[in-house]
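quick one, 141 residues, struct below
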Amino acid sequence: MRAIRFHVLGLLIVTVLTGCAGTPTFVQLADTKWQLAQLDGQPVDTQDMARTPYLLMHANQRLEGFTGCNRVNGRYSGSDDTLRFDSLASTRRYCDQRMDMENAFTHALERTQHAEIHGDTLVLIDAQGHTLATLTRDGTR
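---
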């Protein structure tokens, strides 16, 4: 009986450790604030921003965030390495100096098909395997 418990415990540990690298799980995404670090391979300059663009993904597969000028909300879904953002809606403020970055971030969310998590980094990837955006886990949630 004890051997069976250790075997089951071992399988559980391997499953948890395997889920911690590479392939995202909803447990890793949920209730986590992800700050935008790179967009299309370029660092995001946040010096002139009051706050850094971010996504906050909730356990119920809803998301909220800030895209650089406007607030965004919607839903996310996926399995294994797939990640999709759906039903995105945002406020409609115009910010002269940040609209290009904001539009690129929103477009990246719409094109996301896959994701990878490496430590505290979330990488959004399109259907062709190109990195769209890189976000980092914000520990202040």
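Strands lie at 32-39, 42-43, 54-57, 62-66, 71-77, 84-90, 114-118, 121-125, 131-138.
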